[in-house]
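Please check this chain.
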Amino acid sequence: MKKWKIILVISVLFGLCFGIYKSYMRILPTMDAYGELALRQFCSAVAVHAKRSVFDSNINDELIQIHRNENGEIESIDYDVIYLNQLTDDMVSLTEGIIKDVQIGHYKRKDDSRFEKYLENISTNDGIITSIPLESLIAFPPVSFLHWRIPIRYQTESNVVGKVEQRVESYGINNVLITLEIKLTVQQKMILPFFHDVKNIELTFPVAMKLIQGKIPDTYIGGNS
């Protein structure tokens, strides 16, 4: 083969590769946005399931203890730190366990509920698959009449951390609203060809709320979080 033909073939191949790369980089933000939404739905579904399994039906505002001074003013606010930390640990453990089983393809549904089928489908497909409308992917609305959707698979790696948070705020006139919450942060590493990104997905679950009369105290027993 003549030298100029070799150069031409190499140039064409290089041009094709560069064009594919540029096209991929152009659609990457859209894939990233759809992927984050799919990851958020997945993590939320798992965490809500964990909450239903872990939370005790006996949980109530008695977890929050109010201490007043001799004048009837709120002096401090206390709550059962050990119990709440155990509740948080159980939620983290169950959430992380389900996510890990799904990620390595070992999850088997326990019943015929939509939630169980959803998790088993992700596990079987080796990742989260979402369908992106073609017009959104290439940012060209005129092709929307085709109704084509492009399936994209997102593989993930994850880590789950949790903490207890206490919010004390004024509520109306001379009232205090106290809220105990468990906040889970699911760190999901989204993996696509030639691209990966870490998403921190925060999920908050109220544990107990209590409305009391008085003003916000300067100090708390048990801490703010």
